[in-house]
From TrEMBL, chain A:
The lineage of its organism: Bacteria, Pseudomonadati, Pseudomonadota, Alphaproteobacteria, Rhodobacterales. Heterodimer of an alpha and a beta chain. This is Pyruvate dehydrogenase E1 component subunit beta. Residues 85-131 are annotated as: Disordered. It comes from Thalassovita litoralis. Signal peptide: none annotated.
Automatic annotation (TrEMBL), chain B:
It is an enzyme of class 1 (oxidoreductase). This is Pyruvate dehydrogenase E1 component subunit alpha. NCBIfam families: PDH_E1_alph_y. Residues 23-320 form the Dehydrogenase E1 component domain. SUPFAM superfamilies: Thiamin diphosphate-binding fold (THDP-binding) (SSF52518). The lineage of its organism: Bacteria, Pseudomonadati, Pseudomonadota, Alphaproteobacteria, Rhodobacterales. Coiled coil: none annotated. GO terms for molecular function: pyruvate dehydrogenase (acetyl-transferring) activity. The gene is pdhA. It catalyses: N(6)-[(R)-lipoyl]-L-lysyl-[protein] + pyruvate + H(+) = N(6)-[(R)-S(8)-acetyldihydrolipoyl]-L-lysyl-[protein] + CO2. Heterodimer of an alpha and a beta chain.
Length: 455, 329
């Protein structure tokens, strides 16, 4: 019986990819292990091997096709004695391949479609030229621009140079800046974080990429004891201009040790600045500000957001200041406060709540140290209700802290207790259904809003 | 311990020898005074004295050039004095006063001087090792031909980050001298009880880092080894390890009852191996100085130390506003 060859998922977060090249043609016989195609994922170009043996009966997706969803049939494999005529027509029609230069933008990821409400407080004047960029591209451009601007900026981390970045954030930087400034390290987070901090004491401006922030726990002594405290301990003589960046929070199906949001951990520490962007424009503007900042900055990215596209101002030097929240959506009935990937749930919930006649104001904190308390308090004074949304654990969360500040500063304005929507108080499970429940969901945000609005 | 060298055998002038004597004596008297102030309640918290180990920093500072960097652990007073930091500022930091190097906000373990290229003063055992390699990384990146002296003890030599750093320092040929000040006790644990192999200078072998053992009670031997290590680094050959065998006369910190070694052991070291007495003998025996010359030095040092103590007592406590400064640049 003919077997469909499906578009494979080649990374934990891959939802679609580009069928870059076929290495077989119709009529070729293949054995298990033969490389039949090259597939470009959100992270890298991968070789795709045949699992079964047989004859390539039909190629369903032409090479060069972008945005091929995982599990789409891409070819049909025939067993001995079968012919191409035997192929049933269950296979979905192939999207037409388009030449690379005018290829359409890949479709937005399906489930958590980015909500695009009017942005009441964008960071650019009206009429600014915009371009669509993924968060990944925005981060790379931010680093490249700052490295061009300042010779003392360098990038260090595991697989940042020759591999082009474990998540392709540093793609092309080695070619642009050379191995003196784009430096592959051994897998020794504690050691290279310390070396980077020492080099900042010595006059450089390092960007340290952690392959994920889970591994930064190996290095946390240098982040906190060496980087964050030295300015104070030296009576202001010696600071540490350094950026620690990398993906943070849950990716997808990678289990407990690789899925944790460190926002509250680092936001706890005086001497650190903590950034957690949601959009590509913020990723770019805030990373550029982080690299210029004379203090140690924790820059928490998100693997799921890397491939997401947003409008980014197409201007020469776009920066976003720290400590200024962005109001994504104005509303009157409830204030939703979030940051990073939590914004996805906040914005989706606001969209659905609008259908029920509930008007939610959505605030993206963007930086967690400093926090823009005034914007939050101002909004709560207007809406009288607040729900916070974050992916991290519930105990000592950012939401807990905001609740306390709101209680101190706006107690008389509150018509309901503040609710903190967070990840569940459990290590991240692997099973798909359990993982979905461990994370925050849009439905939970909607339920919390209904609770505080007594609907 | 190795036979003592004489000044005639080493490439050191009488003036240099006198300077070593003076610098070591300054550290010893300063530390004695610090111990006294601690007993009076003027210095708080942890206070780790360097008495006994003076020849290590004085010998290595003699091998350093202007612009070379140094970084060490919490037993840092000697390093600061040896690189020319002002005793007043160091002592006032110990008493937590405004006139201290960190305005009273760092304390005994956390002092810095950008001017003298002293990068701390680090309280986490072993943390200064990658930091020191990082200073050397910056020097290599900026191509300024400087070397960094990264000091740590026999206790820190067992920290994992030391070996992560050895690997990268060798891989990237960083101009860093790892100085293992082996005073034989990691707090109260004798080296033989904490360390599987006794020769710490061989710990870089797995990474291709040359190392040698040095008699740390002989300032001339230390200086000679330092010259060799500096030349190696300056020539772009990468890191070098010096295991300097030394001895701390006082406890780990002021609150150490020192039950882990005998009084006789300490006494024997003081009587037979003392680094300052050694140089004194060389000066007098070689007729490079008279008793009166040395008395004059003793007097000068006493005055410097007393002045630092007076300054440290009279400098005001930091203004309360200082609580909220220097958190962010």
């Amino acid at each position: 019986m003919a077997t469909e060859i499906l578009m494979p998922a080649l990374s934990p977060t891959m939802e679609e990819g580009t069928l870059a090249k076929w290495l077989v043609k119709e009529g070729d016989t293949v054995s298990s292990g033969d490389i039949i195609a090259e597939i470009e994922t959100d992270k890298a170009t991968m070789e795709f091997e045949a699992v079964d043996e047989g004859t390539i009966g039909k190629i369903l997706i032409a090479e060069g096709t972008e945005g091929v969803k995982v599990n789409t049939p891409i070819a049909v494999l025939l067993e001995d004695g079968e012919s191409a005529d035997d192929i049933s027509t269950t296979a979905q029609p192939a999207p037409t391949a388009a030449p690379a230069q005018d290829a359409p933008q890949p479709a937005a990821a399906p489930a958590p479609a980015a909500v695009k409400p009017a942005a009441p407080t964008p960071d650019w004047p009206e009429g600014t030229p915009m371009k669509k960029q993924t968060v990944r591209e925005a981060l790379r451009d931010a680093m490249a621009e700052e490295m061009r601007r300042d010779e003392t900026v360098y990038l260090m981390g595991e697989e940042v140079a020759e591999y082009q970045g474990a998540y392709k954030i540093s793609q092309g930087l080695l070619d642009d800046f050379g191995s003196k400034r784009v430096i592959d390290t051994p897998i020794t987070e504690h050691g290279f974080a310390g070396i980077a901090v020492g080099s900042a004491f010595g006059g450089l401006r390092p960007i340290v990429e952690f392959m994920t922030f889970n591994f930064a726990m190996q290095a946390i002594d240098h982040i906190i004891n060496s980087a964050a405290k030295t300015l104070y301990m030296s009576g202001g003589q010696m600071g540490c201009p350094i950026v620690f960046r990398g993906p943070n929070g849950a990716a997808a199906r990678v289990g407990a040790q690789h899925s944790q949001d460190y926002a509250a951990w680092y936001a706890h520490i005086p001497g650190l600045k903590v950034v957690q962007p949601y959009s590509a424009s913020d990723a770019k503007g805030l990373l550029k500000s982080a690299i210029r900042d004379p203090n140690p900055v924790i820059f928490l990215e998100n693997e799921i957001l890397y491939g997401r596209s947003f409008d980014v101002p197409d201007v020469a030097d776009y920066t976003v200041p720290f400590g200024k929240a962005r109001i994504w959506r104005e509303g009157t009935d409830v204030t939703l406060v979030s940051f990073g990937i939590g914004m996805q749930y906040a914005l989706e919930a606001a969209e659905k709540l609008a259908e029920d006649g509930i008007s939610a104001e959505v605030i993206d904190l963007r930086t967690l140290r400093p926090i823009d308390y005034d914007t939050v308090i101002g909004s709560v004074m207007k809406t009288n209700r607040c729900v916070t949304i974050e992916e991290g654990f519930p105990v000592a969360s950012i939401g807990n802290h905001l609740s306390a500040v709101i209680m101190e500063r706006a107690f008389d304005y509150l018509d309901a207790p503040v609710i903190n929507c967070t990840g569940k108080d459990v290590p991240m499970p692997y099973a798909a259904n359990l993982e979905r429940h461990a994370l925050i969901t849009t439905d939970e945000v909607i339920a919390a809003v209904k609770q505080v609005t007594y609907r | 311990m190795a036979a003592r060298k004489t000044p005639s055998k080493s490439n050191v002038s009488a003036d240099e020898l006198k300077k070593y004597y003076r610098d070591m004596l300054l550290i010893r008297r300063f530390e004695e005074k610090a111990g006294q102030l601690y007993g009076m309640g003027l210095i708080g918290g942890f206070c780790h004295l360097y008495i006994g180990q003076e020849a290590v920093v004085v010998g290595l500072e003699a091998a350093a050039e202007d612009g070379d960097k140094r970084i060490t652990s919490y037993r840092d007073h000697g390093h600061m004095l040896a690189c020319g930091m002002n005793p007043d500022g160091v002592m006032a930091e110990l008493t937590g006063r405004e006139g201290g190097y960190s305005k009273g906000k760092g304390g005994s373990m956390h002092m810095f001087s950008k001017e003298k290229h002293f990068y701390g003063g680090h309280g986490i055992v072993g943390a200064q090792v990658p930091l020191g390699a990082g200073l050397a990384f910056a020097d290599k990146y900026l191509d300024n031909k400087r070397v960094t002296f990264t000091y740590f003890g026999d206790g820190a030599a067992n920290q994992g980050q030391v070996y992560e750093t050895f690997n990268m320092a060798a891989l990237w040929k960083l101009p860093v001298i790892f100085v293992i000040e082996n005073n034989q006790y990691a707090m109260g644990t004798a080296q033989r009880r904490s360390t599987s192999t006794p020769d710490l200078y061989t710990r870089g072998a797995a990474f291709g880092i040359p190392g040698e053992a040095v008699d740390g009670m002989d300032v001339l031997a230390v200086k000679e080894a330092g010259d060799k290590a500096v030349a190696h680094c300056r020539a772009g050959k990468g890191p070098y390890i010096l295991e300097v065998k030394t001895y701390r006369y006082r406890g780990h910190s002021m609150s150490d009852p020192a039950k882990y070694r005998t009084r006789e052991e300490v006494q024997k070291m003081r009587e037979e191996k003392d680094a300052i007495e050694h140089v004194r003998d060389l000066l007098l025996g070689g007729k490079h100085a008279t008793e009166d010359d040395l008395k004059a030095i003793d007097k000068e040092i006493k005055e410097i130390v007393n002045k630092s103590a007076d300054f440290a007592k009279t400098s005001p406590e930091p203004a309360l506003e200082e609580l909220w400064t220097d958190i962010y640049a």
